[in-house]
Amino acid sequence: MSTARITPVVLMLLILSACKKPTENIKIVVDTDVIKYTAMINVTDASTGAPAPANTTITISGDQASNIYELSGKKDIRLTSGMVTIGLQPNVVPAENNPITISVGIASSGYNTASKQITFTTSQKQQVINIPITKTGSTTPPIVTPPPPVYNNTSLTFTGRCPSRTDIEIRPSVYIYFKKTGSVDAFQYLGYMDRGNITTNLLQLNETYDFQIVYGGDTYKVNQKIEQTSYNLTIDMPAACNF
């Protein structure tokens, strides 16, 4: 397995006090938006809408397969809770008249194999690719998940945290999913978070929600009751701390 990795952008912010040592309050801010052209792949059981089983595997093929990385910069691309974000390495950019296309293959014990083409174009830097898989021999029609209802806008700012490094702060650029806390329903797509910021109209006042991101082969969650129009939330992201 390749160990190639793209290093996230690291910004050094110095907060200095005349009464303290110069190195005492250094804050390292890590941006995760190094890979610009990305696709969130969400694999689900077609009959239930639940995440694909844990034994589900994903393969990438095509002329540009060697230029595809997981969002954290790893070449180890695997599903976590049925999800993974992939993208083009930073020095590979699709041309206006020459988009880049790859094929994604999905295999899981007891399910029919599935495949889908993903095309990266200059006009679309983020995209969500939903791949439902059907059980072998199943005649159950695929579930159709209705779109979530629309409410007033809520602004969320997420800051990633390294549990063992208080001097590191993460500004995540990731796809984020949500569901009502305590619900048995599957997570639904909330939107793309740009450097920790997202504004959405899918959150209901006085409801509590679980928010989920997948990064570096791990799943991270945080919850919040919505009682106002903006929130600053902290989410542990240890996979972003290994640079």
Distance between the termini: 19 Å
- Sheet with most strands: 6 strands, mixed
Q: What's the total helix number?
A: 0
> Structural class, judged by helices and strands?
mainly beta
Order of helices and strands: EEEEEEEEEEEEEEEEE
The number of distinct β-strands equals 17
Shape: globular
- Content of β-strand: over 45%
Computed over alpha carbons, the radius of gyration is 19 Å
Low-confidence stretches: 12-18
Explain what the structure shows.
With 243 residues, this protein is mainly beta. The chain is built from no helices and 17 strands. The protein has strands spanning 9-14, 26-31, 38-45, 57-61, 68-70, 83-88, 100-107, 114-120, 128-133, 154-162, 165-171, 174-180, 188-193, 197-200, 208-215, 218-225, 230-236. Strands 1, 2, 10, 11, 14 and 17 form a 6-stranded mixed sheet that branches. A 4-stranded mixed sheet has the order 5-6-3-9, with no helix packed on it. It has a 4-stranded antiparallel sheet with strand order 13-12-15-16, with no helix packed on it. Mean pLDDT is 90; it is low at 12-18.
